[in-house]
Design a protein that fits this description.
25% helix; Knr4/Smi1-like_dom
């Protein structure tokens, strides 16, 4: 069974031109599967929204939101939040984090990241990490899925998992 959007972003999908403008603004190229998601849905709530990391496959967190491009009030905007280092107050690590785009958030304040070089989706938990270099910080990112499409397909329904407590 595929994962479906149960509540669409009321501001609608975006065009390929909108996506190209965004890529030009950030000087990065998004993965094809993520661009397809933005073009089709551009946010919204999924029927299945629980995820785990590869290192802790039985511990599940809730995906609270995936950011949207050019959206209105009440939605976290990808245009404003894409820069992981800036959004998470990690400016001193900015150079080492430039290939990661902050695409969404989960319960307990975790960040969902898309690695633009590998296509991999990972999680950053700011409450459990104390590092001194960008290399150390990248080493703490917990892989969730090899691609954005695999991340969405791997999300579970709340009845299928035991949620983690913060």
């Amino acid at each position: 069974m595929t994962n479906k959007i149960i509540q669409s972003n009321p501001f609608g999908a975006v065009s390929s031109a909108d996506i190209q403008v965004f890529e030009t603004e950030i000087s990065l190229t998004l993965t094809e599967d993520y661009k397809a998601y933005l073009a089709a849905h551009n946010g919204g709530d999924f029927e299945k929204n629980h995820f785990s990391t590869k290192s802790n496959p039985k511990d599940y967190l809730v995906l609270e939101e995936l950011f949207s491009l050019n959206c209105g009030e009440g939605y976290r905007n990808l245009n404003e939040n894409w820069n992981f280092a800036e959004s998470c107050d990690l400016g001193e690590f900015a150079t080492g984090l430039s290939k990661y785009v902050f695409i969404g958030s989960g319960i307990c304040g975790v960040c969902v990241l898309l690695n633009l070089e590998k296509g991999q989706v990972s999680m950053y938990d700011p409450d459990h990490i104390a590092v001194e270099t960008a290399t150390e910080l990248v080493a703490t990112l917990e892989p969730i899925a090899e691609t954005f499409s695999a991340f969405i397909a791997g999300l579970k329904h709340e009845g299928e998992v035991d949620e983690e407590e913060c």
